[in-house]
# Entry
Amino acid sequence: MEPWQMREWFAEYLEACNRHDLETIRSFLDPAVRRAHLPGGADAWIDGVAELLRAFPDWQWRRIQLVVEDDWLAAHLRAGGTHVGEFRGITPTRRHVNVAEFGMYRIVNGRITEFTGTADHIELLSQLQG
# Structure
């Protein structure tokens, strides 16, 4: 893909995320997507997103910066929502959290094949416990 196509592709991916459309999100993933320090595969990715959205049903992502090089995309996002469901053993706090996310995505044939970034939710958990 050309850089402008990658940017459009990511905008469509982010729109699906913000609609909480798990099946469309899955269509952006390679079935065997690899994630650094997290379980691999599209099912694990979707399970993680679903867990987040159950706990934060108003969760939204906003693109801050996007850099494209070859088949890699680097994204700086802001994300947040209100904690109204259990998340990783923490009962609902009704706190609104706002976190920075940084990710590196490898895109091959219109699908995410590799990801590494800050999707481990360490900052999010600290805001819920603080």
Notes: The chain has a mean pLDDT of 94. The first helix runs from residue 3 to 19. The longest strand covers residues 96-108. The two ends are 43 Å apart (CA to CA).
